[in-house]
Amino acid sequence: MHLQYPVAVEMLQKFRERIEASKLLEVEAAYPIRVIGNRGIVNPENLPESALSKHLETLEKAILAGELLELARRPRSSRFAGQIEGQFLAYPIQIVFHNIGWYLGYEVTAGEKAGLLEFERLDKLCLLSKKSQTRSPVEQKQALDRLTTLYKASPGIFLGKSAEDQRKYLDPKRRKSVEMKVELWMGDEIFQFFIEGNQRFAKKHSLYTLEKSGDREFPNRFQVKLPKWSIRDVDLKRWIIGFGGKVKVVKPEQLVEMIEQEGEEIVSNYGKS
After folding, report:
1. Which end of the chain has fewer surrounding CB within 10 Å, N or C?
2. Mean pLDDT of 58-75
3. Helix, strand or coil for residue 203?
């Protein structure tokens, strides 16, 4: 789900600061009835001038104009395996706040990743140049629709590393070939949290009313269909591990093995020497 409140909060804060600086009005401190608990983890003051997050106006204009940009990941910034190294060409599509920071959603246009839709944190990217090439508003909106569909289908900001897999998922006739079924078992107490958090996954893909598992300790079953690339999504793994030993992963086998290995590594960190 796209979070719009962080944008509104930021705009309101900037407006307030400018009004106070102008000395035109005396601004009384308003009682903060609503706030957003999530906040960015990166201090923008510590970023180099090349960071894309310091060139938002240029970026926003490029998104609206459908401009092709030459981007690069900032040197010495953290990254996951399989991410594009060096510079690359992409159409910027949308700026999104997700959990810990601001991300740019874009479409790669050249190389072996051509056509890939993905997100990267703004502070990890830098703008090398603007190209003369643009695409129409219709094409830009179609790309946004594809990006939104993939984002909503995934448990986090990770959209995989295969443009072909993304195309298959976006095609209803081929979607099943790139889907996986995740099944979790849990006790009654934890299951209530799953029921209440029914917006975490798309309703049409999640099941909360399955038959009991037959396991006394983990009688309740939960299933959700996700894109296969979700197996490498850190948000999914963190969510499951966050329940500790109160949730048991049953499917798919690869996810079972991953969570089991994580548990063993955690235990080994506290093992007696």
Report:
1. C
2. 90
3. helix
In 3-state terms, what secondary structure has residue 105?
strand
First CA to last CA across the chain, in angstroms? 46
Run of H or E including 141: helix 137-153
pTM of the model: 0.81
Look at 202-211, 238-247, 257-266 and tell me which has the smallest mean pLDDT.
202-211
pLDDT at residue 1 above 60? no
Cα distance between residue 263 and residue 206, in whole Å: 26
Instruction: Write the burial class of residue 176 (CB in 10 Å: 0-12 exposed, 13-18 middle, 19+ buried).
Output: exposed
Residues 149-158: tens digit of each pLDDT: 999 999 989 9
Tens of pLDDT along 83-96? Answer: 556 789 999 999 98
3 CB neighbour count, 10 Å cutoff: 13
Handedness of CA 218, 222, 228, 232 (dihedral sign): negative
Q: What is the amino acid identity at position 251?
A: K
Q: Which domains does the chain have, with CATH numbers?
A: 44-170 (no CATH), 179-267 (3.30.70)
Predicted local distance difference test score (pLDDT) of residue 87 = 86
Cα–Cα distance for residue pair 25/17, rounded to 1 Å? 11
Of the candidates 100, 81, 222, the one whose C-alpha atom is nearest the C-alpha of residue 161 is 81
Name the residue among 123, 164, 151, 174 with its Cα closest to residue 233: 151
> What distance in Å separates the CA atoms of residue 20 and residue 28, rounded to the nearest whole number?
10
In the numeric block, which tokens belong to residue 62? 């490029």
